[in-house]
UniProtKB/TrEMBL annotation:
Protein name: R-spondin-2
Spondin-like TSP1 domain span: 114-167
Chief subcellular location: secreted
Domain R-spondin Fu-CRD intervals: 9-110
Originating gene: Rspo2
Signal peptide range: none
Pfam families on file: Furin-like_2, TSP1_spondin
Region (Disordered): 173-212
InterPro entries given in the database record: Furin_repeat, Growth_fac_rcpt_cys_sf, R-spondin, Rspo_Fu-CRD_dom, TSP1_rpt, TSP1_rpt_sf, TSP1_spondin_dom
Listed SMART domains: FU, TSP1
Biased composition annotated in UniProt, kind: Basic residues: 176-191
Species: Agelaius phoeniceus (Red-winged blackbird)
């Protein structure tokens, strides 16, 4: 029978003009559809979004998923597919993956990410493999990868970082402190200036004698 715009008695064992299906055929699921103030029963081969099929000796029913932002679920408390924009993780739906897990965009799932250990202590301040002879250097700390990610496409956090540091000894013991190449350039410029000054002084003296 067809009552109104929907074939509400399709697949029914018993049906009411006002309430639709009351009992369904053996393999179908009973679903109570609500439209405004009206509700009526339907018999479906599979349950709609947000519901899962619950089979019982009495009658198979469509039961609502109780998980927030779930599109389809395996059972009341285990989601198999989340709504758009949400990631599936252990039967739940998340806007962002929990700590220790990475988002797999193509499947919208949270998988095991790259796990790293604790940072080591900062290393010795050095520059050009030397721990003296300079005012400033770099010190480095590292951490180990404890667990590789489930997918090679998932990057690991940085495992080494460096920062600027002040050397404990600016002058190396038992030797003269030498500046880098810039200092040599300054000495060369200073020497050239001295030579030019002496040359100009000699020209001045020669000119002075001639004028006398």
């Amino acid at each position: 029978a067809n009552y109104g715009p929907n074939p509400i008695c399709k697949g029914c064992l018993s049906c009411s003009k006002d309430n639709g299906c009351i009992r369904c055929q053996h393999k179908l699921f009973f679903f109570l559809r609500r439209e405004g103030m009206r509700q009526y029963g339907e018999c479906l081969h599979s349950c709609p979004s947000g519901y899962y099929g619950l089979r019982t000796p009495d009658m198979n029913r469509c039961s609502r998923c109780r998980i927030e932002n779930c599109d389809s679920c395996f059972s009341r408390d285990f989601c198999t597919k989340c709504k758009s924009g949400f990631y599936s993780h252990r039967g739940r739906c998340f806007r962002g993956c929990p700590a220790g897990f990475a988002a797999l965009e193509e499947l919208m799932e949270c998988v095991e990410g790259c796990e790293v250990g604790q940072w080591s202590e900062w290393g010795t301040c050095s520059r050009n493999n030397k721990t003296c002879g300079f005012k400033w250097g770099l010190e480095t700390r590292t951490r180990q990868i404890v667990k590789k990610p489930a997918k090679d496409s998932i990057p690991c956090p940085t495992i080494a970082e460096s920062r600027r540091c002040k050397m404990a000894m600016r002058h190396c013991p038992g030797g003269k402190w030498r500046r880098p190449a810039k200092t040599k350039d300054k000495k060369k410029k200073k020497k050239n200036l001295m030579e030019r000054a002496q040359k100009q002084h000699s020209i001045f003296l020669a000119t002075d004698k001639t004028s006398q």
